[in-house]
Specification:
The chain has three helices and three strands. The chain has 120 residues and is an alpha+beta fold. Strands 1-2-3 form a three-stranded antiparallel sheet. The chain is extended, with a radius of gyration of 27 Å. The relative contact order is 0.06.
């Protein structure tokens, strides 16, 4: 019986998780998360210009392909949208996301800005 108790203690020691190393890893993860947030904030400041340029390039390409699709950019929500247009009348058949969804998103950003005292 002494052999079994000795080997079980050795197995427990070998398989037991080491708690000491988990705290420094969490600090590194939190630091990485903070840097990601900072990078996203920097990108949000540059994105409107880049997205506007991308929209104009996409529209040029769509004109060359003679399609019924146009791209746009909504600066209130910093997001692109797509219009499907009937060529003969110029009437918008579909819009992705819908106008209602974009206005709802703008209102939600405004509410978040009010709640947290910063611009949405």
């Amino acid at each position: 019986m002494d052999i079994f108790s000795a080997t079980s203690k050795q197995v427990e020691a070998a398989t037991a998780p080491k708690v000491e190393n988990s705290a420094p890893m969490r600090q590194v993860e939190q630091t990485a998360d903070t840097s990601k947030v900072n990078q996203q904030n920097n990108k949000e400041q540059e994105d409107p210009k880049a997205l506007s340029e991308t929209v104009s390039e996409l529209n040029k390409q769509m004109d060359l392909l003679n399609t019924n699709i146009t791209f746009g950019y909504n600066d209130k929500i910093n997001q692109m949208f797509i219009n499907v247009i009937e060529k003969s009348t110029g009437k918008v058949i579909r819009k992705f996301p819908t106008e209602e969804a974009m206005s709802l998103s703008a209102k939600m950003k405004e509410i978040v800005g009010i709640i947290f005292d910063k611009k949405g």
